[in-house]
Structure formats: structure tokens, C-alpha cells
Amino acid sequence: AGAKPRIETTSMTLHANNESLIIRNVEIHGKSNTADYLLNENKTTNLHTVIIDNCNAHTFRGLIRMQNTANATQIHLVQINNSIVANIGDFGVVNGATRNAPFRMEHVVISNSTINGVNGDVVGIYNPGSSYVIENCTFYNAIRNARYLFNLDNNAANIPNELVVRNTIFG
To answer: 43, 33, 41, 27: which is closest to 10 by C-alpha?
Structure first.
């Protein structure tokens, strides 16, 4: 097994009728953890599923970001599985931290992955979804001072029906 194919990007926005974004078996990276995003969606799309599977993803300001109060995208599933995520800046791994925005990320699953070096919240979502699950993961240097594993804007209304952290190591 050789090295994974490499993709360098500073930001992806879909703005179209794409239903799924699936990134599998690649190394994907930005140039800067203070400016770049893997997905930075600010307009309403038909995006239903975002999956990052068996990837090395690094050097982004934020990995998956939804923004803008005019963005009404309803993502059913955001899943990061069997991946290494490293050198992520202040917008964290999954970010939907825009107050009063109509977009939703219904289910967020981070599983079988290593998360290393996150300067922001790991998951920051200010609009409630149904379930946020982290399982079988290793976190190293990933929850900084005054940052959170789950930042739900200190609002009980944003707590999902299922909030689970299981079989996970923090160091």
C-alpha cells in the first residue's frame, strides 16, 4: 500500500444541487490553518451527506463549516470515519457556529479516528441536531484552553437528543 493520493485545496463551496460530498482514501490538505477550509458552505444547497472516510485531512482553519444566516442547508449526516485530522485552526473540525441561522447538521459522527492539534472547538454547532456521536477515537492536543469538545453556545435548547462520547482517549 503506497501513499494516498493528495489533494490540496483552500476551500470548497458547492452552491449547487449536490446531494453528497464523499471524500475517501486521500490525503487532503490546505495551505494554512488560519485561512483555509475543506468545506465552507455559505449558501443554501441540497447537500444531504458529508463523509470523510479513510483520509488524512490537515492544515485547515476549519474542516467542515456551515455559515451565514441566509444558508438553509439541511445536512442529514456529517461523518468522519477511520481518518486522521490534524493541524486544524480556530474554526475546528465541524463548525456551524452561526446564531439564528436556519441551516442544520442533523447527525454528526466522528468515529475510529485520530484528532490531533485543534485550536478551536472540535464540534461547534449553535443550531440543534438529533445526535452528535464521538466513538473509538483518540484526541491529542485537541481541546485547548477555553475551547470545547462540543460547543453548543451555552444553550440547553441546542443539546441534541443523543450526545455520546464512547471508547475515546484524550491526551
So the answer is: 33
CA dihedral 135, 139, 142, 143 (to 10 degrees): 60
Q: Which residue has the cell 449536490?
A: 18
For 89-129, what is each residue's pLDDT tens digit? 999 999 999 999 999 999 999 999 999 999 999 999 999 89
Dist. CA 41–CA 71, nearest whole Å: 8
The amino acid present at 47, given as its one-letter code, is: L
- Cβ–Cβ < 8 Å for 152, 95: no
- All residues at 6 or more sequence positions from 125 whose CB lies less than 8 Å from its CB, including other chains: 94, 95, 96, 97, 105, 108, 132, 150, 151, 152, 158
> Would you call 86 exposed, middle or buried from its count of C-beta atoms within 10 A (0-12, 13-18, 19+)?
buried
pLDDT given at position 144: 85
Residue with cell 484526541: 139
Distance CA 26, CA 147 (A): 29
The overall pTM is greater than 0.85: yes
